[in-house]
Amino acid sequence: MYRRLASSLLGRRVRHPRFTPVCLRQDSGGCDRWEEEKKEDGVKWTQLEHRGPYFAPLYEPLPDDVHFYYDGKPLKLSLATEEIATFYAKMLDHEYTTKEIFQNNFFNDWRKEMTLMEQKIITDLDKCDFSEIHKYFVDKSEARKALSKEEKQKLKEEADKIQEEYGYCILDGHREKIGNFKTEPPGLFRGRGDHPKMGMLKKRIMPEDVIINCSKNSKIPKPPEGHKWKEVRFDNTVTWLASWTENIQNTLKYIMLNPSSKLKGEKDWHKYEVARRLKDVVQKIRAQYRADWKSKEMKNRQRAVALYFIDKLALRAGNEKEEGETADTVGCCSLRVEHIKLHRELDGQEHVVEFDFLGKDSIRYYNKVSVEKPVFKNLKMFMKNKDPADDLFDQLSTCILNKHLQKLMDGLTAKVFRTYNASITLQEQLKALTNPDDNVAGKLLSYNRANRAVAILCNHQRSIPKTFEKSMQNLQAKIDAKKQQVEEAKQELKNAEDEFKDTKDDKAKANVEKKKKLLKRLEEQLAKLNVQATDKEENKQIALGTSKLNYLDPRISIAWCKKFGVPIEKIYNKTQREKFAWAIDMADEDFEF
DNA sequence: ATGAACACTTAGTACCACACTT
DNA sequence: AAGTGTGGTACTAAGTGTTCAT
């Protein structure tokens, strides 16, 4: 019943594309963008119906023959204590369980959940032996891997059923996929980088913690048997379906729609339209911040230098963070004196600023940049009489900066520069790198290089894959083998040509053609492998996905595909095509960012 | 004016299914 | 049939920026 309703909605949608390629520019006004009537300001939907979150499975106690040992002796733990012990036991071969902060945080939180008796006994983590529990879970995961095809199929069907039931909602008559419909299971918190809270206990989310958001007249989701929701509200000015407060940072978590949804798609489109508007005023803004480098007001100078960094280097804004609550990371406005070094001259360049700091996710930003002289002089001044740990821009905050930007352009904030510079860089690089005569593989290499230029600009890194060295060697071996084949084919061709010279007969001529074809094919294969190797090497430490998904206006890529006859599937996989459905619908080959 | 709360986007990693070898 | 490499995805942390409360 539910299914039939849903599929009929889907069917209808196919005949009425959700994203109509009209009226991208504000000045073309007056047309209806979407099928639905326009909503009041701030209203996100008129109908929202869903099943509520899918809760993490309850804890299953360990079998009786799996023991926890304290001080060498087996100790039967209470259910709650045992559950938390399993969280730690599962992580045993991770490096972070060796860190003191992790251990202390874990042990503290663990003890809080123990019975009085357990608290009395278990006083020293070093005396805890989780190895049997650890082994139990290793074996269990092995066993799951070893399951037969049929058994795996059955598990998958069960997962699909859950997805089908809980993974979708109805929003304004459309069945939309939900992004994260499951509550996060309990476990030990893992922050990124040097996180002061690593190892703390992340508690189980109960229905009593969850706020449901839906429309009044919809079927209100039922909490699990014997439970109640914390609250049911009907707030159509927000897009989330459910929320709860997590206990580590005391912040809210939300259940929201999948990026393929219309709601998210429109928002994404809007984001790129704002960035495109920046294109029209960016020269003016640049002229202005250059002028402000000489402002009488220190505040303005700091603002202007910071903005220069954000624009030129695509730095993040850098909000203030509560000290001691998170890893020590910074962005532009929160840079400290210790994060930059000034070199009047370095490697033949003048006025070089050497950046070295940890940014979002504790990813290191290291860069040596030659800056314009007034910037250099200003920086010197900002650093004067300060300790290394002092703020570089002590008179500036993201709030001040964004207020200033808002005056320069409606909707302009610091992050728009990142979007703008990423997208414009892709467009320029594609223009510069694409050779229309290349085959598809060659064009894709160009695309990847353009994408890579953006990823480098935005400092999107990844750890070098564990298998990198090995797979590179394998690829090299393939290349060598292919080279060998090419040489052989060359020789064979030469032989065939010699024979033809001698005999001049048709059979020999046909043989020459055959050998030529073979050689050509082999050479193409070799070229392809070489391209692969280059791409792989250049890419080993760079993550392309983040910029592709969040910073590059998809219409640039789609236009490029159309212009150069590259199938869109080569650039975007299925999920990405769903996310960028709006762009695929509207962009033609003439699209300019 | 300020800071906390809130809502939303952006981010890297672990893992797994699957294709491809061996 | 097992090993292996890889793309895709799930997961959830960590940012940004606005709004709310005082």
UniProtKB/TrEMBL annotation:
Domain DNA topoisomerase I eukaryotic-type: 188-565
Record carries keyword Cytoplasm: no
Enzyme Commission code: 5.6.2.1
Domain of life (superkingdom): Eukaryota
Pfam families linked: Topo_C_assoc, Topoisom_I, Topoisom_I_N
InterPro entries, A to Z: DNA_brk_join_enz, DNA_topo_DNA_db_N_dom1, DNA_topo_DNA_db_N_dom2, TopoI, TopoI_C_dom, TopoI_cat_a-hlx-sub_euk, TopoI_cat_a/b-sub_euk, TopoI_cat_euk
Catalytic activity: ATP-independent breakage of single-stranded DNA, followed by passage and rejoining
GO MF annotations, alphabetized: DNA binding; DNA topoisomerase type I (single strand cut, ATP-independent) activity
SMART domains found in the cross-reference section: TOPEUc
Active-site residues, record numbering mapped to chain: Y551 (o-(3'-phospho-dna)-tyrosine intermediate)
GO (cellular component) term, any one: nucleus
Gene3D superfamilies to which the protein is assigned, alphabetical: 1.10.132.10, DNA Topoisomerase I, domain 2 (2.170.11.10), Topoisomerase I, Chain A, domain 3 (3.90.15.10), Yeast DNA topoisomerase - domain 1 (1.10.10.41)
Gene Ontology biological-process entries: DNA replication; DNA topological change
UniProt keyword annotations, A-Z: DNA-binding, Isomerase, Topoisomerase
First-level EC class: isomerase
Biological role: Releases the supercoiling and torsional tension of DNA introduced during the DNA replication and transcription by transiently cleaving and rejoining one strand of the DNA duplex. Introduces a single-strand break via transesterification at the specific target site 5'-[CT]CCTTp site in duplex DNA. The scissile phosphodiester is attacked by the catalytic tyrosine of the enzyme, resulting in the formation of a DNA-(3'-phosphotyrosyl)-enzyme intermediate and the expulsion of a 5'-OH DNA strand. The free DNA strand then undergoes passage around the unbroken strand thus removing DNA supercoils.
Family classification: Belongs to the type IB topoisomerase family.
Protein name per its UniProtKB record: DNA topoisomerase I
Gene: TOP1MT
